[in-house]
Amino acid sequence: MMMGFYIVISQHNLIKKIVGLNVFQVSVFVFYISMGKVKGGTAPVFLDGFEIYSNPLPHVLILTAIVVGVATSALALALTVRIKDTYGTIEEDEIEALETEDQEKEKEGLP
Amino acid sequence: MIAAHLPILQVIIPLIVAPIALIMRDSRTVWVLTLSVTWVTFSISLTLLIEVLDSGNIIYRIGGWAAPWGIEYVLDKVGAFVLVIVSAIGSIVMTYARQSVEAEIPDDRIYLFYTMFLLCLTGLLGIVITGDVFNLFVFLEISSLSSYVMISLGRDRRALTAAYRYLIMGTIGATFYIIGVGLIYMMTGTLNIADLTVLIPSVSDSRTIHTAMAFLTVGVCLKLALFPLHLWLPNAYTYAPSVVTAFLAATATKVSVYILIRIVFTLFGDVNILEASGLQNILMTLAIIALFTASTIAIFQNNMKRLFAYSSVAQIGYIILGLSFASQIGIAAGIIHLFNHSIIKCTIFMGLGCITLRVGGVSVKDMCGLGYRMPWTMAAIVIGGLGLIGIPMTVGFVSKWYLVRAAFEQGMWPIAALIITSSLLTIVYVWRIVETAYLKPAPKNAPNIKEAPLSMLLSSWVLALASIYFGVNATTTLNIALEAADSLLNGGLK
């Protein structure tokens, strides 16, 4: 979990940031799934011979969270494509340099 | 029959209309559709508020499943009040939106904008009305994802990076939130807010719950842009289309504040978490730092949208400060300021939107002499600015008055002094606007400009007048806020 979080903070490449974000989210999913696991339990389907079942609720929650996660990554990637189109780079420091240029252009227009 | 289903209709209507808007494509039709949806949700939420005030909390079981198994929608006084704020702002912004959107967003993307707007509205209304912590997360993500898209529709290319940064920060915030929810679920085995209120006190001493509390608070504070977690906000507000800024500034952060209220005073209501964990001091300190830092940065901004974005960070400081007193008056002050600040900021950003439409930009040089060239628009902005300072007869005065009273009530007079000093900083930046707009001459070669179109002016003025009306006659809002604060402190959803 912390690894993913660290990647998000430390990386300057926008794609790598998204990868970090995914690692971070997936680790939370695994955390939920492990929470629902009951020792010796099987999948919660009624069958003869099995009496202990895992808690299905966290698993269901995570299905929803996975969908949210997919949507987030898709949107982030789409934004990255647009950024690449307009700035010509996906390195954060280069983008920042271009943005400072933008800002200075704005300032020159001031009285 | 239909009246019993109002709570769910509130959320379902915009959700269903969003894909319809996507299919319709024609920008004018889609606008009419969205406009009618926002007004319908507004009338529903007003009905709900009246019902809650008359006969107590509304509980709606989805699909008829009882609470711990099914998801329920719960509305108490705070919820109903915030619901009205969100839907009211939504409907007024939509009335205002058409010309501004047509000017700022490329034609082939306009229908996408309205779709996203509807989804965002769904998410925000859903957060307020739901009684289930995980369902809340889903709505939080619906509203956030659509707001990232809306921000990225801005004309400036920096809108894209602003949206990207907001996405990263927002997702981290939301993920922190589900970690917190997971930890709580581990200890209690339930996700229902009313159930959690009962179960948490018995396990509140465990380290798991403390960790959960930390994750939840940090996650939500990222979303509500409490200093120093506000870094995404200024760029996002500056480069988003004007309509989006007006809508998000007035609702998105406010709804996040509502989540914080729910966590602190409802989930952990029975264990007095604010004092027990030292959170009270942390929030109070951060809020005060926010007041001063953000206001000071705002003074030096040349772009008006950016200036008011920083001022938003400061105003959120006031709201959190009110909540952190954890007394009835303090919380009421927070809730009132939540309402007042929505009105004020929406007025100002709408006014700035009118200027963008007619002049093309909102930097200081664009503002010179505007007081005479667009008198009505500027007057609305100035009324909003006076409200920010907290001049008597405007809404800002009511909330500051209650904040100061709450501070005195607890014997914290240094804080009262700090609140008043920080208002001085507000005067500085509001005065700068007045100065450029009314005292500086317009540039010689300035093109002749018309006043903004009627629908835009009218909606800005409705809010500007509302900010005066609720400043002069604050009894209605005050009573609701005081009752809401009372119900939060004594039992919440039970």
Characterise this structure.
The complex is a heterodimer of chains A (111) and B (494). Chain A has 111 residues and is an all-alpha fold. Chain A has one domain: Helix Hairpins, CATH 1.10.287.3510. In chain A, 73% of the residues lie in helices and 0% in strands. Chain A is built from four helices and no strands. The mean pLDDT of chain A is 79. Chain B has 494 residues and is an all-alpha fold. Chain B has a domain of 217 residues. Chain B is built from 21 helices and two strands. Chain B has a two-stranded antiparallel ribbon with strand order 1-2. The radius of gyration of chain B is 21 Å and the shape is globular. The interface between A and B is medium-sized, with 35 and 32 residues.
List keywords for this structure.
A: mainly alpha, 73% helix, B: 494 residues, two-stranded antiparallel sheet, globular
Mean pLDDT of chain A: 79
Count of helical segments of chain A?
Answer: 4
Q: Could you please say which CATH topology of chain A applies here?
A: Helix Hairpins
Low-confidence stretches of chain B: none
- Gap from first CA to last CA of chain B: 25 Å
Radius of gyration of chain B, in Å, reads: 21 Å
H/E element order of chain B:
HHEEHHHHHHHHHHHHHHHHHHH
H-E string of chain A: HHHH
Total DSSP E strands of chain A:
0
Q: Which structural category fits the helices and strands of chain A?
A: mainly alpha
Q: What does the radius of gyration of chain A come to?
A: 22 Å
Number of domains of chain A: 1
Q: Biggest sheet of chain A: strands, sense, closure?
A: none
The helix fraction of chain B, in percent, is over 70%
Largest sheet: spatial strand order of chain B: 1-2
Describe, in short, the structure shown.
The complex is a heterodimer of chains A (111) and B (494). With 111 residues, chain A is mainly α.
